[in-house]
């Protein structure tokens, strides 16, 4: 599979997740914030809580599917990137931060299953 089609599928998954979260009352503040430590897929505001949302998509359920791919190593990268965000954006420091994961199994433009886990992991 080419990296272009993977990137297109990833972008479609993030749009699908952003639409899903907006339909549930969250306000999407930013997409794809890239830092040396890692990338933050979606940054949302949920009733005064800053939700850092990792979006994972897998075509098949091999190896546990999309949700299983957010392992401890990936969580540490997201937490490091969020800490950099807080250093660079002091206006968001006053908010409580929550780490969410949206897993999409299947194709975002076709048949798929989406699961949103609020507060999926915590910074330690």
Please give the structural blueprint.
Layout: H1 3-23, E1 27-35, E2 38-46, E3 49-58, H2 65-68, H3 72-88, E4 96-106, E5 112-121
Parallel strand pairs: 3-4
Antiparallel strand pairs: 1-2, 2-3, 4-5
Report strand %. 35-45%
| Count of the domains | 1
Approximate shape: globular
The Cα radius of gyration reads 14 Å
CATH architecture: 3-Layer(aba) Sandwich
Helix content: 25-40%
Strand order of the largest sheet: 1-2-3-4-5
- Unreliable segments (pLDDT under 50, ≥5 consecutive)? none
Structural class: alpha+beta
Order of secondary-structure elements: HEEEHHEE
Largest sheet: 5 strands, mixed
Name the CATH class.
Alpha Beta
CATH fold-type name: Trna Endonuclease, Chain: A, domain 1
Distance from first to last alpha carbon: 36 Å
Number of helices: 3
Number of strands: 5
Task: Please tell me the overall pLDDT.
Answer: 90
What does it look like?
- Strands 1-2-3-4-5 form a five-stranded mixed beta sheet.
- The protein has three helices and five strands.
- It starts with a helix and ends with a strand.
- It has one domain: Trna Endonuclease, Chain: A, domain 1 (3-Layer(aba) Sandwich), CATH 3.40.1350.10.
- The chain is globular.
- The chain has 124 residues and is of the alpha+beta class.
- It has helices spanning 3-23, 65-68, 72-88, and strands at 27-35, 38-46, 49-58, 96-106, 112-121.
- The longest helix is centred in the first third of the chain and has 21 residues, at 3-23.
């Amino acid at each position: 599979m080419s990296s272009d089609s993977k990137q297109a599928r990833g972008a479609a998954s993030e749009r699908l997740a952003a639409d899903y979260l907006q339909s549930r009352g969250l306000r999407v503040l930013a997409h794809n914030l890239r830092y040396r430590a890692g990338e933050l897929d979606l940054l949302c505001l949920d009733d005064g809580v800053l939700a850092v949302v990792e979006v994972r998509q897998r075509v098949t359920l091999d190896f546990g599917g999309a949700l299983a791919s957010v392992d401890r190593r990936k969580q540490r990268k997201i937490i490091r990137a969020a800490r950099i965000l807080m250093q660079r954006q002091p206006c968001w420091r006053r908010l409580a931060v929550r780490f969410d994961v949206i897993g999409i199994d299947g194709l975002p433009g076709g048949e798929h299953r989406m699961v949103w886990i609020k507060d999926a992991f915590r910074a330690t």
